[in-house]
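Lecture notes, continued. The same structure-token format from the folding unit now serves as the input rather than the output. Read the line below as a description of shape only.
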């Protein structure tokens, strides 16, 4: 007889160094490291959000690999590639609740029908947990930022090279040139 157990937050705290995972449908879902362009794009977004944080003192810019604890029927955690959070800091522990703005940068394996379905499900989870804006950043194929809003989650606004992407109403007044995501 086998005993099936669900992954716990303690499991997340005890992952090997530099390992990233989320708890989805009771299981640890490991996330592979990314390549140059997606990694650089996430870092560039985080760096720009840091400038906004310093100016406004209205929340916290957070880089990749920060855990957010949520309480959804099918998900216990989120770990965006960059984010902005307005809740209370938790020291060395994961943050409670979702960020108001989350960034998901596509990696090599984030294309195809299954990947699209997984990303749409994750966006729905973000919105159900309280996130206002989710960016789907594609620097590898289409070279766009799709801005999804909780108020209209199925119809993204698309920004291309030469344009300025925004995050209203989540991060008021913060914008970013799409061109800054590329070398």
């Amino acid at each position: 007889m086998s005993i099936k157990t669900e992954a716990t937050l303690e499991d997340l705290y005890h992952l090997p160094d530099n390992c990233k995972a989320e708890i989805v449908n009771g299981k640890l879902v490991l996330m592979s490291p990314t390549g140059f362009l997606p990694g650089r794009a996430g870092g560039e977004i985080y760096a720009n959000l840091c400038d906004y944080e310093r100016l406004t003192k209205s929340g916290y810019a957070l880089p990749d690999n920060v855990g957010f604890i949520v309480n959804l029927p099918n998900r216990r955690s989120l770990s965006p590639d960059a984010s902005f959070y307005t809740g209370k800091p938790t020291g060395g522990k994961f943050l409670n609740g979702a960020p108001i703005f989350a960034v998901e940068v596509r990696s090599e394996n984030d294309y195809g029908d299954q990947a699209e379905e997984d990303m749409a499900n994750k966006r729905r989870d973000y919105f159900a947990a309280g996130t206002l804006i989710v960016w789907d950043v594609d620097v590898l194929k289409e070279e766009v930022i799709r801005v999804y809003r909780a108020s209209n989650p199925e119809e993204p606004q698309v920004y291309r090279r030469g344009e300025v992407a925004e995050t209203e109403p989540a991060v008021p007044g913060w914008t970013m040139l799409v061109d800054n995501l590329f070398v």
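Point for the exam: The chain has a mean pLDDT of 94.
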